[in-house]
Amino acid sequence: MATTIDFLEMRTFVAVVTEGSFTAAAQRLDTDKARVSRTVRRMEEKLGARLLNRSTRHVSVTDVGRDYFERASSILAAAEAAEAAVAQQAQEPQGRLKVTAGVEFGTTQVDAWIADFLQRWSKVSVETEYTNRLIDLVHESFDVAIRIGPLQDSGLSARKLGELSYGLYASPEYLRSRPDIQGVPDLADHDLIMHTPRGRPSWTLVNSNQIEKIARTPRCVVNNTITARNLALSGLGIVQLPQYLALQHIGDGTLEVVLPGWARSTVPVHAVFASTRYMDPKVRRFIDLCRERFRDNLSPSN
Question: How many domains does the chain have?
Answer without folding.
Answer: 3
